[in-house]
Amino acid sequence: MSDYKINILHIYPDLLNLYGDKGNIECLRKRLEWRGIDATVSSCTMENPKIDFQDADIILLGGGLDRELSIVLDRLKEKAEELKSFVESGGTMLAICGGYQILGKQCFIGENRTEGLGILDIVTVKNADNHRFIGDAVIECDGIPKLVVGFENHSEKTNIGKYTPFGKVIKGFGNDGTSGFEGVLYKNLIGTYLHGPLLPKNPKVCDKILENALKNKYPDFKELAPLEDGVEELANEYMLKRMQ
Amino acid sequence: MRLLLAVWAAKLSAVLGQLLGKKSSSTPGSIALRICPDIIRKLKSKIKNEVIVVCGTNGKTTTNNLLATALEKGGANVVCNRLGANMLSGVATSFALGCNWFGRLRADYACLEVDEAYTAKVFKHIKPDIVVVTNLFRDQLDRYGEMDALMDIMKKAFETADHPTLILNGDDPVSSGFGRDYKGEVRYFGISEKVLDEQESAQDGKFCSNCGAEQKYNYRHYSQLGDYYCPSCGNKRPKIDFEASCVDLTDGIGFLVNGEKIHLNYKGFYNIYNVLATFAGIKTIGKDTKSFADSLALYKPQIGRMQQFDLGKPFILNLAKNPAGFNQAIQTVAQDTRKKDVIIAVNDMPSDGTDVSWLWDVDFEKIADSSLNRLIVSGMRRYDLALRFKYSGVRVDVITEDMKSFLDSCSLSDAEVCYVLVNYTMLFSTENILKELEAEKEKNKNV
Question: What is the mean pLDDT of residues A186-199?
Answer without folding.
Answer: 96
